[in-house]
Structures are given as C-alpha cells and as structure tokens.
Amino acid sequence: MIKSDILIRHRQRACAPKTMSRSSAYPRHIAGQTTVGLFTKSPAKDGNEMKNATGSNASVFLGGSCNPTTWRFDYAIPTLEEAGVSFYNPQVDDWSPELVAIEAAAKDEAKVLLFVIDGQTRAGVSIMEALKYGADGRTVVLSIENIPMGTVIENQEVLGRDLKDANRMRSYLSDLVKDYPNVYICDSMTSAVQKSIDLINS
Fold it and tell me: What's the CATH number where 194 sits?
C-alpha cells in the first residue's frame, strides 16, 4: 500500500461521524432517491436531479476538518446548491472501503479542492493533503483557523506542547503555500466557500 492510499484510508475514517446531530444530515432523499456523498447542480437552478457519481461530476471537493464539525451541512452545501455548483462531500454516515476509490477520483477530477482547517480538530491529514495538492499545482482554496487553548478533541483537552504543535502545523501550511499562484488563502470558511464558487464560475 502506497502512502497516498494510507492517507486516504485514514482520512475516510476520520470523516465518518460517530453520531447524527442534525435532522437534515446525510443521507438526503431528493427526487425519489437517496444520495450520499456527491450532489450535482441544484434542481432549483437547472432542473437536473442530484445524483450519485464516481467524482467526475463534482466541481468542488469539500476537504478538511470532519467529525465533529458541521460546516459542510450548515453552510457549504446549501451555499453551493444555491449557486448551482456541484461538489463531492466525503463526510458520509456509513463508511466502507469502496469509498476510497470514489474519494480519490473526486479529488483527481475536481476543479477546486476546498480545505477548511478549523479549530475543532487537529486536521493533520488535511493539512498534508492541502500542501501536497498545492505543490502539485492544483487549484486549492484554504481556510485556516488555529485551535483555541483548552479545546477538547477526542475527549482530550488540547494544551501546552500539543496545542503549540497543532497550531504550528497550520502556520507552516500557510507559510509554505502563500506564494503559490494556484492556492487561495481565505480569512474564513464562508469566504473560502464563496471563493470556490467564484473560481468555478470564472
């Protein structure tokens, strides 16, 4: 198994939430079918049904922090749907090994790779992914937040050297990619989502 496969498998497990906290969370039932992971353009925009695919229809890959975050469902997905922009969401209810290839295809074929590195998770794998794809010349949109002191992650309070190291990784990511013409660093998750839409429509 190559290192990229290990990263994908690790991230897929990290993206599988342990509990369902919102009534509107996935899977979602639209136009008589259940769709998980990928939605294409909003029916409100052009009449097309949302459907599953292997990644070839996704314009934006929704990477970055997963469980317990809800930024995808609270803001990113509704905003992308309203804009009529297709996307792939790796945060699924029931993870299975078959999703490894699907997510890899979605990353390879997405026009924009959006990575939200928030302050609720360590997001170590997402940081490495964002750096890799930025160095590879892919179009990457980033939102980077530090972890506040005392944040509890996986039932452990993040303090001291642990906190310093986690936030140093975020600082290194920002410093390494800031001069890449293909990487866009935004000051918030909402502005990163909007930047992704702008790049798709440009």
Answer: 3.40.50
What pLDDT, in 10s, does the model give residues 18-38?
Answer: 333 333 333 332 222 223 344
Q: To which residue do tokens 């997405």 refer?
A: 110
Q: Nearest Cα to 152, choosing from 186, 119, 190, 110?
A: 119
Query: What do you get for the CA distance between the two ends of the chain, in Å?
Result: 38
Domain count, the chain: 1
Q: Which domain holds residue 38?
A: 3-201
Q: What angle, 0 to 180 degrees and rounded to 10, lies between the N-to-C axes of helices 124-135 and 160-177?
A: 10
Q: How far is CA 90 from the centre of its chain?
A: 7
Rounded to two decimals, what is the model's pTM? 0.74
- Angle among Cα 103, 107, 108 to the nearest 5 degrees reads 115
